[in-house]
Amino acid sequence: MSTLEYPHERDALIRAQVRTDRLQLLFRQTFFSVLGSFLAALMLSWLCWARIEHSVILYWLALLGVSTSLRVILLVTYFRSPSDTRTPQRWELKYCLTLVLSAAIWGGGALALMQANDLLTQTLVLLFTVGMSVSAVSCYSAYRSMTIVSIGLVLLPCSFWLLFQPAPMQIGMAAASLVFASFVVSATRKLSEAMEKAFRLTREMEYAHSIANHAAQTDELTGLKNRRAFFQEAEQTYEHCKRNRLPLSVLMMDIDHFKHINDSYGHQAGDQVLRQIGAVICEAVRDVDLCGRLGGEEFALLLTDTSIDVARATAEELRQAIARLPCEHIEGITASLGVATMSAVDQNVHMLLNDADKALFRAKAQGRNQTAVA
Q: Distance between CA 107 and CA 157 in Å, rounded?
């Protein structure tokens, strides 16, 4: 049964996909945030070099270099890992820990650069922390919590320090930064929600497209490929086997006296027979095989990398399974099958199917409920 029939399963799947999309966006944007963070620290250190004790600056840059290296290692490991292992459960916490460490070092270092009697240095440091907060919105907006935490760790230490200074200008600078932070938090919430809605809408559209595409290619009664989809894939399978010199066999099958079933017991009984046949075929074939309902009571199976002997055995198993089907108000269900295999004479898949169709005609002419080989 399809996911469409279980809305809660579909919603859970879409939520998981949206979460993965957010993680992928986060890692794609991280390189610029890591590089920008360290460059900003270097620039601020250069501007304040003549006004602050050098050991404080060097110690801060050393710690920031360690945290930057950890984030780079995390990035490299993520992008080198197999795509199926890039799950939120495996990477979100690791990313969050490295981000918190880097933001805490940045905010703590900025606080250490604050000089009680140097308004110019205070202004420069606050300006850089505000700039880092803006960059956090652009880089981590897919995750609202990460954005808020990084802004708080970088901006709030300096802002609160200024807030408790005696000069009115310092208090005003702190108040302005806090007001700015409140607006950023609000904007972050809206941006994060908008991004999540966009991710969800994209996934829902992809899901709807896949459902529509599946419906356009599937026979609604049997669940097998319909005629158009079968021939499209059959041509690709034929070319693949021919190019790689793999044996390819085909089974053509007709339900015996199907018109009599419809005329005697009604089309509902006929539809039920088709459903049963479709279930038997699905159980008999492998994932690499191709099977479809070509119309009415006619079915075709394309068996990849299968010799004529194996194909005939498969046909016999299929015929016997159909003969054992329980059927209410019907004497019994039987089928006739024709088997053919690809040869050097065949030019395309239609010629191969035609060979199997001729064998099927012979099986029906010889009394039905049997398998004939081309």
A: 6
